[in-house]
Write a structure and sequence with these properties.
The protein is an alpha/beta fold. It is built from four helices and five strands, in the order H-E-E-H-H-E-H-E-E. Helices cover 30% and strands 15% of the residues.
């Protein structure tokens, strides 16, 4: 306090931080500057393959390796979860619907709390073995559900490109017709 005392005469605002948490301080500064700390949460849903390791910035990780693996179907292997046939294959697994329903319910419960606490970024990582089939299909489904619920998540597929970790950022483009017979 002694060191900063000379600065008070130039200050436009002084905030007593005694007893304030970081979240409360962020809110107080936002209020004073006329900015709301609510609604500033940027949500990213990122599919990935465990073979390449966890995404560095993942806040929540969901493992989809319990779902049927399209990799073992020769016709589906070269495709990705972006393709209608792969999405249908993964979606036909009896465990798919209950798992995605529960994850969706959990996320819709957590997101308002993260926003209220002033968290600016949340990365939801969805993984499978290689990051090309199951995780992509589930990430797309979660993206659609969160969007329908009024959120605006970003969708990133880290490992879809078979040449490495060149991330493809998507905004909910329609699933392609490859492999669907269309």
């Amino acid at each position: 306090r002694t060191l900063t005392a000379p600065l008070r005469r130039w200050a436009d605002m002084v905030i007593d931080t005694t007893g304030l948490s970081v979240t409360d301080l962020r809110r107080r500064i936002g209020e004073r500057l006329g900015r709301s700390s609510e609604g500033g949460l940027t949500v990213t849903i990122e599919s990935f393959g465990f073979a390449g390791g966890l995404p560095r910035d993942a806040d929540l990780v969901f493992d989809m390796r319990f779902l049927a693996n399209p990799h073992w179907d020769v016709a589906l292997r070269p495709l990705t979860g972006e393709d209608r046939a792969v999405a249908a294959y993964v979606g036909a697994d009896p465990a798919f619907a209950p798992a995605v329903d529960r994850i969706t319910d959990l996320l819709l419960t957590l997101l308002p709390g993260y926003g209220a606490e002033g968290k600016a970024y949340l990365t939801i990582a969805i993984g499978c073995t290689g990051g090309r089939h199951r995780s992509v299909a589930v990430a797309r489904e979660l993206h659609a559900r969160l969007t329908a619920a009024g959120h605006a998540p970003l969708l990133v597929h880290r490992d879809v490109a078979s040449t490495g970790n060149d991330a493809a950022i998507l905004t909910g483009a329609p699933i392609t017709g490859q492999g669907s017979g269309a």
